[in-house]
Specification:
The chain has 138 residues and is an alpha+beta fold. The protein has four helices and eight strands, in the order E-H-E-E-H-H-E-E-E-E-H-E. A four-stranded antiparallel sheet has the order 1-2-3-4. The chain is globular, with a radius of gyration of 14 Å. 29% of the residues are buried.
Amino acid sequence: MSGEILGSISVRKESIVKALLKSPYAVKYIELFFTPNRLIVAKTAGGWKTGGIAGIPFAKRNAKKLSLLSPEAILKSDEKNFAIPYSDIIEVEMKKGILSGKIKIFTGTKKYEFNIEKRKFENHLNFVRSVLPGKLRL
């Protein structure tokens, strides 16, 4: 990881089942990069070439490549990447479901919702708790 990146969490925009019902290419893979003062939301795979279940290897490879970059370079790597300053985050809600976990990030103006692998939920929960201790709700 880059010196300014504290850690990251691999997520999906929607559950695989829900996305595949729409289109086999609808699954979008995203990496949440945590820095000392902001969260960077970065696309790692998705769309007609790298969507669906076939996108998993692309997402992992791209997340690893992005993790070696500076936060600014991550933001510039795709026009859809964006940052959320921690000062804008009101609350982070994390819940474990039957098939996957969810992470919801609430700012004063927007809500972001992502799906997390169920088997990694506890590790991600502990990490988010360490970075944003006063903002996490279960």
